[in-house]
Amino acid sequence: MNVTLRVWRQKDARSKGKMVDYKLQDIDEHMSFLEMLDVLNEQLTENGEEPVAFDSDCREGICGMCGVVINGIPHGRGQTTYQTTTCQLHMREFKDGDVIDVEPWRATAFPVIKDLVVDRTAFDRIIQAGGYISAPTGTAPEAHSTPVPKADADRAFDAATCIGCGACVAACPNGSAMLFTAAKITHLGSLPQGQPERRSRALGMVAQQDAEGFGNCTNIGECSAVCPKGIPLQFISRLNRDLWGALSTVDGKHLG
Ligand code: SF4
Ligand code: FES
After folding, report:
1. What is the Cα–Cα distance from 164 to 186, expressed in whole angstroms?
2. What does the angle CA 218 – CA 221 – CA 225 come to, to the nearest 5 degrees?
3. Which of 118, 172, 180 to probe ligand 1 with, by most ligand atoms within 8 A of CB?
4. pLDDT class of 250 with cuts at 50, 70, 90
5. If you measure from the C-alpha of residue 70 to the centroid of ligand 2, how many angstroms do you get, rounded to a whole number?
6. Residue 38, φ and ψ in degrees, nearest 5
7. In this predicted structure, what is the pLDDT of residue 204?
8. Angle of helix 198-212 relative to helix 178-189, nearest 10 degrees?
9. Each residue of 55-93: pLDDT tens digit?
10. CA–CA dist 31, 90 (Å, integer)
């Protein structure tokens, strides 16, 4: 198949970017979107041009490194594929002759570093602000010493599938990170091991979101609609419940 790509090219964080057209011919429909970008880069390199910078690692939908906006939708969307990662989207989802727009995540808290690569270290700092548990080191405890109800374990597991890709932020008109943070808070807050820091976790992670420049959640739902792991909006309600509980009880004072 033949396609025309309109790719965001930006030399570095300070330069102004623009869309640049590239024509690709005889693309195998079974290639992944990233493999198609690899072909583009081989052509550019052979022609002595700068290849397009983009992130990827596992290419199996598990690491969260990849992510570009394809035709206006974070990670893109095919005729049969919804809520995917960019690496799991295949060219058979497009038609011969298609013109495909490829852009980086667009969010204040994710500044463009180069071309399609954005700085997502804001997510790391949100995790550092509370996305952990305190556990004694040493020999692993006996597996049955801390019983966990199945419903709680299932919820924690579902939340833990968030791969930190940032598509939720890119899709949100407010550039909000609430779905990402809610997934982490739901994961840890659903388990007994996550209870000691439950309140400080909600306070710390939400404060860090604000400090990084992410917007507020106004229940639009675009985040969940593009999330490759199907993290549901209800988890944001759990975050808000933990936050309200924390604000109500810090130092024994009602602050909320
Ligand atoms: S909530 Fe979904 S879209 Fe957001 S970072 Fe996690 S996996 Fe990616
Ligand atoms: S490259 Fe790892 S999720 Fe896409």
Report:
1. 14
2. 160
3. 180
4. low
5. 15
6. -60, -40
7. 97
8. 170
9. 999 999 999 999 999 999 999 998 777 899 999 999 999
10. 6
Distance 49 CA to ligand 1 centre (A): 34
Find the 173 Cα to ligand 2 centroid distance in Å: 24
* 100: pLDDT strictly greater than 90: yes
Going by C-alpha positions, the residue among 131, 117, 109 that lies closest to residue 206 is 131
Distance CA 99, CA 2 (A): 9
Residues with CB under 6 A from ligand 2: 56-59, 61-66, 85-87, 163
Cα distances (angstroms) measured from residue 174 to each of 95, 107, 182, 217, 223: 32, 8, 16, 7, 10
Phi-psi region of 221 (alpha: psi -120 to 50; beta: other; left: phi over 0): left
Integer Cα distance of 9 and 52 in angstroms:
7
Task: Considering every ligand atom shown, identify the ligand nearest to the alpha carbon of residue 160 and give its number.
Answer: 1
Q: Which ligand is nearest to the Cα of residue 168, counting in written order?
A: 1
Diameter of the chain by CA atoms? Answer: 67
- According to the 3-state scheme, what is the secondary structure of the chain? CCEEEEEEECCCCCCCCEEEEEEECCCCCCCEHHHHHHHHHHHHHHCCCCCCCCCCCCCCCCCCCCCCEECCEECCCCCCCCCCCHHHCEHHHCCCCCEEEEECCCCCCCCEEECCEECCHHHHHHHHCCCCCCCCCCCCCCCCCCCCCHHHHHHHHHHHCCCCCCHHHHHCCCCECHHHHHHHHHHHHCCHHHCCCHHHHHHHHHHHHHHHCCECCCCCCHHHHHCCCCCCCHHHHHHHHHHHHHHHHHHHCCCC
